[in-house]
Amino acid sequence: MRAFLVMALLAPDVVVAQAMPAPIEVVDPMIGTGGEGHTFPGATAPFGMVQLSPDTDTGCELRACYGHAAGYRYEDPTIQGFSHTHFSGAGHSDLGDILVMPQSGDEVALDPGDPKRPGSGYRSRFDHAQEVARPGYYAVTLKDSGVRAELTAGTRVGVHRYTFPAGKAAHLLIDLRSSLYNYPGKTLWSGLHLRADGTLTGFRETRGWAPGRKLYFAMRFSAPLTGHALIDRDTAVPYKGFQGPGRGSDAVAEKLGRAIEARLDFGVLDGPLEVRVALSGVDEAGAIANLGAEPGGFDAIRAATTAAWTKALGTVEIDAPAAMRKTVYTALYHALLAPSVWSDADGRYRGPDDQVHAARGFTFRSTFSLWDTFRAEHPLLTLVQPEQTTTDVVRSLIESRRYSPDGILPVWQFAGRETWTMIGYHAAPVIADAYLKGFRDFDADAALDAMVASASYAPYGGLGEYMRRGYVPIDKEPEAASKTVEYAYDDWSIARMARAMGRTEIADRFDKRAGNWRNSFDVKSGWLRARLSTGAFRTPFDPTAINYGSDYTEGNAWQYSWFVPQDQAGLIRVLGGDAKAIAKLDAMFDFDMSTVDYSHAEDIAGLVGQYIHGNEPSHHVAYLYDYAGAPWRTQERLGQIVASQYKPTPDGLAGNDDLGQMSAWLVFTALGFYPVAPGSNQYVIGRPFVDRAALTLPNGKRFVVTAEGLSDANRYVTAVTLNGVALDRSYLTDAEIRAGGALRFTMGAVPNKSWATRRAARPFSISTAAKVE
Q: What range does the record give for the signal peptide (predicted)?
């Protein structure tokens, strides 16, 4: 970071430059661990397979597990142990694999116990004052055992370091029963193998969010075992499905079952105990090989990961007041956690068909929360991680379709397994956006074929009805209104890529489908509504109603009536023109929420009127004033959202981060622009929230954003220049950013109501600009 604060010394003509803290020093992984952020504070590398983090409660009931989806919740008083896999900001609970808990003294507890009764099990109280969380590092003191726990992680390896109280025996408990949302019967089968060289290997097959998920591990210790016990806590009839590997020739002990634990004894140690753990989705041999691929102890792995984070975060330089700088850099950090690596160091991975395949020339990635992340997370990665990430992501999506039993692209995938969660075929805009931005290091024909196959798979989400009627009928398929408009947007992205490739027949077919949003829009009432198979709109109708499985997906008519990213100009005409569209947007943000109750809908958080920032369908809405010729209104609304939805505290995210989408929204918005319609190659201009930012692009060029006069009072854009030339339009092109240059905002206390208001100055819509740029 080359930004400096200048401080005057005693002599008026003598100054000294004091460097701002480096990005890695200001990131706070605790942001989002409280409230509804659902982030975890533990150690991980950029996009790492291992997310080594504390779990504070894994025994929650279904509804309570929503708040514990990442394993850790800031408000909890105890830590149950440290497991190796976690989602960052998911709206669903799973993972929490291979729980490790250190214990000291003569007794070793085998069950976690009651968090309200200290000493009733192996869980321990802790104090936030003794926690440290940094990118790639986490530490805490376990009050009940006196053990100081430190965690770090590489790409496929996690390393624990435990310092035990002097004179007390050291033990580890490995609990394969434990999972996040650990309902009875989730662990289908598991096993442990203690090998002659002291390596402990094992596996789990679980029946959770992703069915039949398999995970393997290998664990080595810096001190020899003085004793051990492999324990089966289950007396039920053994599972007769996947049995896992049998005892190898070098195994000295083995235990298979549904409820397996290991007690490992090390005696009294004269120094810290280090535990190296590698994961694999393939087999135990793959886990052992992954251990060898990342050599070194705790300090070496931590140093390598610190260097990786320093490089990844350094692609964006930010000058801003301390609180904003911390918030934005932490958002960037959260945006670089997924899609996570899933292939082993040798390229092998377990695919959607539960078979082992090999990635050649790229790293296979999984953890695709595509309904959330197509909006801003993936577009952000094309700028800040463009070379490897975009290529890896697109190739992984194509490979997933190749081995999918259904022959379509991922919907919500992790650990190579499909969950069928959420709606749409949003891998399509992710691929199209990358292709249209010039990323071509993948088989474009195979990609387009996969996109078309996904958009033509009749059994999925009412697609057969959609293709037949031009809309999804609510009496045939739930959430029909949302599905109609999301399918239409995905169709437009397919058409864009097909036309750029010269595949005219496909482009024409999907361009027509891109207009299907009109088929569910009730022009008389001005709302997107669900239609019956008869063609009539369903009644009764309440635009404020939010219910799961109803007309809309995690939202209502207020949010979804604005979901036409590909043709906002067409939507504004349907609404009756600019003034009526602006009035409807204002009514959304200014809605009196005392008249409704959404306490039954756990995903509905971060409300500004009927704008719901804690859930994704609203994320583009504040930028829509630009399309109606009122950019200053976008600037006002963005100020409301940033001030109320983000802060540098554990409860600093208003809603769950959804694998980086909430965070990517803030990174873009802080820079002053946002990708309302990925695939358009445009970013809609809002207003900056940092004094200066610089993107370092892979071609060595830099794109610098400056906000002259920015302050709480000066919150409006009064003028914009691009490379010194006045910019009188409310969008930037992707090519302009990648070419490098300087975007300068002049900020003022009074809005400039003449800037970028002309129709020609407005962002892309099908109705006004159909050309692929």
A: 1-19
